[in-house]
Amino acid sequence: MKGKSMKAVGFKKSLKIEENESLIEIEKEIPKAEGFDIVVKVNAISVNPADTKIRIRTAPDKILDTPKIMGYDAVGIIEEIGEKVTNFNIGDRVFYAGDVTRDGSNAEFQSVDSRIVALAPVSLSDAQAAVLPLTSLTGYEALFDRLRINPHEKKTILIIGGAGGVGSITTQIAKQLTNLTVIATASREETIQWCKDMGADHVVNHKDLVNSVNEAGFDTVDYIFNVADTKGHWDSMVELIAPQGMISSVVEFEGGIDLSKLQAKAAGFIWELMFTRSLFNTKDMHRQGEILSDIANLVDCGRIKTTLTQTLNGFSVEILKEAHKRVESSTSIGKLAIDYSK
């Protein structure tokens, strides 16, 4: 494939998605696999809030010399492997979330580190599998690496943002791999039902969080995982977290929060960022490949189901713009995929 070109979609300036050049088509050379890298022919992707945030924040006051290619979920077929790759073969069907510092999956081919990749679930279509990597890695890491939950303990977790992609899969992982009682937030009839379908034991209203959790029978909760609004829910989380409890969040914010409010309870706060391992090339970076293998096995055993709710077909600027619009609306349930092959 060396020397051959491919189509990709990216941006050079941060613009509102409605503007003409918010996303642009790019022609690039197909990447080459070296070291631990594999080159994947991309069949399907998912669009996440991470994509829209990176698009709008990367270059608000400048024009990039090299277009930024996003895309942090993919399913595809391995076309080439680097000399250090030992656990994959050409022709394998894989899925992964990728690395925020490298070109993403909004392209016909993508080079990705094999250590953060796994064989895709055989029981799912490309679109069904493409929505899982980023969210399942985030949820799994939050539960077991950040909150350090003991799978055998019978405690409670409040998931704020239960109907979104991360909340949906985290609920399933928690119900399948721990003894936690899962309380998820939702406010609309359809999102409440979705949270129940994901396995939530209780669904509470984030618009009146403290009272709603209390009405469900809980004065406090042992763990909180916030995938919706850290700063907006901070006072409620402080009130609801149990003494010696732990809070984790994926949602950054401007300004500050008063961490000292957790002091009396000796409670903790910790960030989860799925990209940390690849961003810093941590010694345990391979752990992400292992987690994805576990997720694939749980899917193929029928214990976890896809969170796919919307599919767009084709690979073009117009299709990706539509996907960004839908994600930015913040009204989606579950996840959106784009099937390149249709």
UniProtKB/TrEMBL annotation:
<dbReference type="InterPro" id="IPR013149">
    <property type="entry name" value="ADH-like_C"/>
</dbReference>
<dbReference type="InterPro" id="IPR013154">
    <property type="entry name" value="ADH-like_N"/>
</dbReference>
<keyword id="KW-0479">Metal-binding</keyword>
<dbReference type="InterPro" id="IPR051603">
    <property type="entry name" value="Zinc-ADH_QOR/CCCR"/>
</dbReference>
<dbReference type="InterPro" id="IPR011032">
    <property type="entry name" value="GroES-like_sf"/>
</dbReference>
<protein>
    <recommendedName>
        <fullName>Zinc-type alcohol dehydrogenase-like protein</fullName>
    </recommendedName>
</protein>
<keyword id="KW-0560">Oxidoreductase</keyword>
<feature type="domain" description="Enoyl reductase (ER)">
    <location>
        <begin position="16"/>
        <end position="338"/>
    </location>
</feature>
<dbReference type="InterPro" id="IPR036291">
    <property type="entry name" value="NAD(P)-bd_dom_sf"/>
</dbReference>
<keyword id="KW-0521">NADP</keyword>
<dbReference type="GO" id="GO:0008270">
    <property type="term" value="F:zinc ion binding"/>
</dbReference>
<comment type="similarity">
    <text>Belongs to the zinc-containing alcohol dehydrogenase family. Quinone oxidoreductase subfamily.</text>
</comment>
<dbReference type="InterPro" id="IPR020843">
    <property type="entry name" value="ER"/>
</dbReference>
<dbReference type="InterPro" id="IPR014182">
    <property type="entry name" value="ADH_Zn_typ-1"/>
</dbReference>
<keyword id="KW-0862">Zinc</keyword>
<dbReference type="GO" id="GO:0016491">
    <property type="term" value="F:oxidoreductase activity"/>
</dbReference>
<dbReference type="Pfam" id="PF08240">
    <property type="entry name" value="ADH_N"/>
</dbReference>
<dbReference type="Pfam" id="PF00107">
    <property type="entry name" value="ADH_zinc_N"/>
</dbReference>
